[in-house]
Amino acid sequence: MFIDLLLVREYLPEHIPGTPINVFGLFIIVCWEVLFHVVFRRILKQHDYISVLYLTVFACLIVLFSEILFQTYRQLAFDETYTDQDRIRIFLIAVIGMPLFAAALAFPVAVDIKYKKRWLTTMLYAVLGASCYFAMPYVLSFIRGE
Question: Does pTM top 0.90 for this prediction?
Answer without folding.
Answer: no
